Amino acid sequence: MKKIGILQTAFLGDTVIIADMIGKLNKLYGDQVQIHLIVKKGIEPLFENDPRVNSITTFDKRDTEKGFWGLIRAIRKVRKLRLNVMLTVHRSLRSSLIARLSGARKVIGFKTASMSFLFSKRVEREGAHEVLKNHRLLEVLDKRFLDITPSKAHPYTLYPPKKNKRKDLSELEKKSFIVVAPGSKWPTKRWTTNGYVELINRLLKSYIYKIILTGDKEDIKYSDDIASEINSTKRVLDLTGKLEIQDLFYLISRARLVVTNDSAPQHIAVGLGIPVVAIFGPTVKELGFYPYSNKAVVVENNNVQCRPCGLHGHNVCPKETHECMKSLTSIEVFEAVEDMF
Q1: CATH among 3.60.21.10, 3.10.450.40, 3.60.140.10, 3.40.50.2000 for 167-340
Q2: Which top CATH class is 2-147?
Q3: CA 332 to chain centre
Q4: S-S: 330 plus which of 139, 162, 198, 280, CB 3.0-4.6 Å?
Q5: What confidence score (pLDDT) does residue 52 get?
Q6: What is the pTM for the complete model shown?
Q7: CA neighbours within 13 Å on the CB side: how many for 323?
Q8: 129: exposed, middle or buried (Cβ count in 10 Å: 0-12, 13-18, 19+)
Q9: Which of 73, 71, 34, 72 is nearest to 56 (CA)?
Q10: Given this chain, do its domains 2-147 and 167-340 carry the same CATH topology?
Q11: Are 283 and 262 in contact (CB under 8 A)?
């Protein structure tokens, strides 16, 4: 029995896509493998209902496991798993140390990781998407993974909660609403307020679907500005700042479509088989974080010469124009939505 760990303690969107690795390990090894995840605290609800996952260990690197002694506590937790193999997706110094000191006989990680010389095997991060890059770790583990490479026609699978305790969510009729996630931790990744207002008004006029606004607490004012300008608020429910991860997970699993910026909801939607329209501004698909599915489309302006301006965008546009987002019209995004129906 192989006991394989996958270590990814990055942001929510980055962690979602390790679901493809979970699926491939399960497909090749079946009941001959145990899959153990090591993820950032707070993200574990994404995988709590996944029957392929044997355990989830959390790393609270911002609080109880911050600093040197916190790192020691994290290493001790991981060592208790008694892993045979550790697949290290995250590339930070802390992740490299946890992986090396995990007790696993074989540690596989990327050459670009901090202190990658600690790994048993080092891998080039090659591929047009993060899913493909991560798959390289599996190919080094076992050459048979070369025959079951990721596919946008059959993307990774997530397992959402079947029920939700919140009455306002559980009473929503399945496929009766569109999730619009206009926020982002990086302000320049947000499409314009007017763009979202015009889009939502078009959707309400053209379709019978409700619109559910979602986002983090940091996005509340942005969503408030959008909601206040919408013509018909009876079919709009603003849940920004009111959802835990498991609530968002459940909500997206029941949606007809997700419209979002370059952020985590696009990756969650892919894993749930929900069509996605993603709006890209300062980032580009070539960075490898676009929605990895045939049921997804990216709306972007490839004529803006300063794109991309960074891997994650910025708090303020470096050129102070935000042209990459302002140049995208509500008609373009609406037409992309129509293509998904």
Answers
A1: 3.40.50.2000
A2: alpha beta
A3: 24
A4: 198
A5: 97
A6: 0.94
A7: 13
A8: buried
A9: 34
A10: yes
A11: yes
